[in-house]
Sequence to fold (635 residues):
Amino acid sequence: MIETVQSRVAIIGTGNIGTDLCYRLIRDKRFEVIALVGRRSDSPGLDMFKDDVPNLFSNGIEGLTPILGSIQGVFDASSAYNHKQHWEVLETSNKWVIDLTPSKIGKPLVPALMNKVPTMSLQKKLSSNYSMVTCGGQSSAPLLCALASASVGIIDVEVSSSIAALSAGPATRLNIDPYIESTEELITLITGCKKVKAILVLNPSEPPVFMRTTVNISAKFCDLDRANTITQSLIKDVQKYVPGYELVVEPYLQSKNTVSATVKVKGAGFVLPEYAGNLDIINSAAVETAALHAGAMRIEKAI
Amino acid sequence: MTQAKLYDVTLRDGNHALRHTLSSNFVSEYCKKADESGVWAVEVGHGNGLGASSYLVGKSAESDKTLLKAAKDSLQKTKLAVHVIPGFATIKRDLIPAIDHGVDIFRIATHVSEADVSQKHIEFLANRGLTVHGVLMMSHMIDVQGLVREASLMKNYGASTVILMDSAGYFIPSDVAERVTAIRDSLDLEVGFHAHNNLGLGVGNALTAIHQGASVIDGASMGLGAGAGNAQLESIVAAGIRESSINLGVSNFLGLSTLVENTYQDKLPRTTSSSTQSGLAGVFSGYAPQVYAAAEEFGLDSKILWSEVASRKLVAGQESMIREIAQDLMNL
Fold:
């Protein structure tokens, strides 16, 4: 009989992202949530899990430090600024980290593109740091990869996302420029193109809209059939960890040299509402990445 | 009566009507004439502002830099202004170069309920002592109380003026009066108004705003702007002269309108049955090209597509959804 080996983890951050992650990880047989870390004792996020998580800390990374020996990895859903300090502690303690902040410290990873983009592979060391980039990055990456690999002589690339205004918390609103910059860096990483643009539109309409991301790639030549085939296959790969990920406009020639395609992201509706597909895709990618990394580390150890 | 400052959006909103093909040659020619007219400011750029040239909303024929330089070199007295939408334009890539190009007035624009997205951009400019206006686009999509709340956010970030944009051309004069008055009464903030002509009310709404104490009034020569176009600048001036709310001569403005008329005869916006319908539905005027293109591609009646776009409550910047909506309609 095969015994499921669980990874023991901590979550830092008790906002929308952190609580949704905690909810998922508690229900995921691959993980055991040892600690949830916030910064305020009256945090409603901490209170939500008082019966499910053995260690609740309201004093940040300091609270977590004494029990670091009992965990293997950390999901950091705090802020870019705080992540820098957290990583200093976690790196020296040989913990793997999934960075859900826009700190850009970790290596960008989109699970569905593992080993399809040269730099997107598992880091085979204990202290690994993976960046989940942005929701626009996670949702566009499969389209970028598909359209780019069917194109020759890429001229420019654009990713535009619209999200429900209600799903954009204060941090997103304050950090719209870092969002754009991180997303643009990922576009370059995947397509190799330096002329890139990312756009984010917040839509306040009621009922809230699902996230949509459109990719446009202009190139000297694009094999549309091939773009379509690769797109369909990558969409299926993402759907394994984000069931609400859907291709709504198949790759088509938007103009003579420009191919365009659009995806829609519906959230799983755990703690966050279904329309918050933008938050869902980041969390789903985080859990998937952690599972892949932990699995690879176990194989490494066995060898 | 207070003298309103005239803010000319021909070379920015007009770029929607030109599908962003505005040339630096035309910018130079227009700005030289505008500088003689007494118009307070000229706004230049892509229809969706700085850094907006994109597949999503259309590529500019010439870069922001080229257009701004052409304008700056041709303006002595009149101020150079830009429209900036966070989410499209970033501080590093777009605002800092624009400061270097000598832009005098920065308008930071968000959808009417999302003013907090403008905080970093407004603070960055205000902290440098630059003139910053906050712009609330699609301002009909919120109640008056909400409008005042969003305007006060922009004021707190450092905006000296808040501009109410009737981006869909939906307002009737009483709507304009109520909103301008509400902001003037509750906030120590200058108010501006930007009209669209979908219901043929552009100039009337602009004058109403002046009567209620708005100090900045947007207009475009020949109304050159998105959808049914903006309030016609030369008509605002003529009517303003008659009621003594504007203290400028009309002849230079007529010269500007003739220049636009002669250059872009086939691009001049009009109030049509379709623009009337989009205005009544409260849909962003700038969607016209995408709506007509998708209607043609799928063989749909554009009026049906307009009403579906309205019922999905799209905000500006969601051009890519129009084709998807058309596709959905065909699959019904």
In short: Chain A touches chain B through 31 residues (CB under 8 Å).
